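Risk register update: the risk of archive-format incompatibility is retired. Evidence:
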Amino acid sequence: MKKSLLSLAVLSAASVPAFGELTDSESSIPDLETVVVVSSRQGEPLRQVATSVTVLDEEQLKSRGLASLADVLRSTPSVSVSNSGGIGKTTSLQVRGESGFRTLVLIDGIDISDPSGTQGGANIQHIMSSNLQRVELLRGPQGMLYGADAGGVLDISTRREDEGQRIEVSAEGGSYDTERYNASVSGANETLDYFVSAAMAETGGYNTSSYDTELRDDDGYDNETLHGRVGWNVTEQWRVEAIARDTDASGEYDRCGWPSQDDCTFDFSQKSARVSVAHTGEKGQQELSYSRSDLSRAYLSEGVASYDAEGEIKKLNLTGSYGFSSEHAMLYGLEQREDTAGDLDRDQWAVYTEYQGSYADRAYITLGLRHDNSSDFGSYNSFRASTAYLFEDVANGTLKIKTSYGTGFRAPSLYEISYNSTAFDWTTFTPLDLPSLMPEESRGLDLGIEYFGENSLHLEFVLFKQIIENEIGFDLVGYTGYLQSRGESESQGAEFVAEAQLTDSLLLFANYTYTYTYTDTEEADDSPRARSPKHLANLGFTYKPTSALSLAMNLRSSADAVDIDGSSMDDYLVLDASVRYQLNASTTLFVRGENLTDEDFVEVSGYNTAGAAGYAGVEFSF
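Archived output:
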């Protein structure tokens, strides 16, 4: 039963045109002119994009209704999530089987990575889905322009208005003593535009750890996020923008200290800001920006501080484009980055450029090169090449063939370096002389085909292969420190995506991803990557019988994953659903059910997952 969704999703997606007559009604299905930003750091229509990109708009985010952005992303292709005990707890978002820290996360252009983290990734568990207008995910190691790792780039945008003013206020309550409140105001005219929001989420939670058999307390979580943005169009050519974001979170968890106990709490704070000035001319555009993100984490055991960390990222970016003609253009950029974690710091410079060519409005080519220079590890070059070709008038639609190849590297994190420099033998308490770490190098290839059927049908099939050399991982046998494998770690597989507007009121979507990961090194031969499911699938629909009522449902499946000790993990099916009803022009009521079948499963060994849960709320929009 649990694996039946895998075939069901593929069969349903492949046969969707037979279910009903395709319509010209407005839908969220992408078409050739849908503009995406994440692939090349500037807006370009999908007809030109040869990389693999997932897009969620504001309507899709609201229809799913889930509090955590990581939970929303579970329904998208090639994304699996490992969560340690509920909302706000440690969460890893894996793309195509790659570890979560390999995906770069940006919010309104701000890099929110954690330089003090074990491997430098973003704290995705503290990003709520409130007040987001658009989420784009570049899948795979094609983020050369960002210096991104093998997981790709997650680009998150808050709300922007074209004109007028919009005010939103919402409240929600439900299972596990959960409450969510949100207020935002946005507006725009020819000169000024702005967005300000305040969001609060709190939950009593549930018992995080299956090993907590004595205290058995609920482990709650609180999150308060403020976000503001203001833009000033000084002239038709010049624009100035400023952004600030402040997230404060706290929570309870289990299994901390030595010996382990279950009265554990944490505090998290991240304050980020970005200022930019942009110029748009007849031949292109340029933007100079400076961003800064300060982060702190503190952990307490029975009320006594046990560990704390602070980190900071500063970035200065100059990006631009120049159009030689309507068919040929060049992107370019210069980046200076400084990471700080405690007493450690690192400077890195990068310069990049990419040629973009259009031939007969049918063939599109990009060729890009990036040069990074790190104060710790010297110079590295990476590049990306991609091509897309369109065949028009194919079964009343357009067929796109695409391929892309990209490389990248990841320098050892400041934490990895620091840990190894102070590592010692736990039995003799003598210092260990561990080998020096060097950067990981990655490369990846995508081969894909897409079909766009007049705004009512979108099909995509992608074969991918990604390889990481010199992969860094913690020694889970001797617990000595971070070790570097001598060999290759590989993930390869296939993605299938389908979206179909079956009738004016019914939208069906399905995706299936097969990912085979393994490590071929001297230390481990053909061992699968931990917590990376071989099979991921989603099957869902949105039904709007009237303009006021909408029902969304999604069934997701995960199968054939192993834990860090090599043991098999649970296969599972989880059903989520939500209903939204627009009572009048300004009031919308909504209810949501999560894990409606009360599936009992484990994502991280030793940590519980939520059972069936229900939530209800109201949203006011003016």
